[in-house]
Design a protein that fits this description.
Blueprint lengths: L18 H8 L6 E4 L2 E4 L1 H11 L10 H17 L13
Antiparallel strand pairs: 1-2
The structure holds glutathione (GSH).
Glutathione binds next to loops.
């Protein structure tokens, strides 16, 4: 948001209790969640996608679709191989 020079309010939540407001907003428990135009968007890639559509410049995703696909594949890989797995909270890493 700051990179795109967009006015915004950042809310920091305590891990654990964060699940209650985040679930109310987005029907899931992970952050980040962006509330924009009355809509809640969960997940960095989805948030970037919405921001790129509404505010194209400056660009966050690479310009070409091939490079964009490559960036999204890296996000997917980290979510799958390094990120949070379904299971008991707080954290379980692969
Ligand atoms: N790649 C995902 C990662 C999301 C993620 O792992 N979020 C963590 C914090 S950085 C989280 O909210 N964990 C607690 C939970 O899922 O309840 C993204 O960037 O959106």
């Amino acid at each position: 948001m700051a990179f795109k020079n967009l006015r915004h309010e950042r809310v920091s939540l305590l891990p654990g209790p964060h699940q209650i407001p985040i679930k109310k907003l987005s029907c899931q428990t992970s952050t980040p969640v962006l509330v924009i135009d009355g809509q809640s968007i969960a997940g960095s890639a989805a948030i970037i996608d919405v921001l790129e559509t509404k505010f194209p410049e400056p660009r966050l995703f690479p310009a070409t679709s091939a490079e964009r696909d490559q960036a999204l594949a890296i996000v997917d890989r980290f979510d799958r191989d390094v990120g949070l797995l379904p299971g008991p909270w707080p954290l379980r890493y692969s």
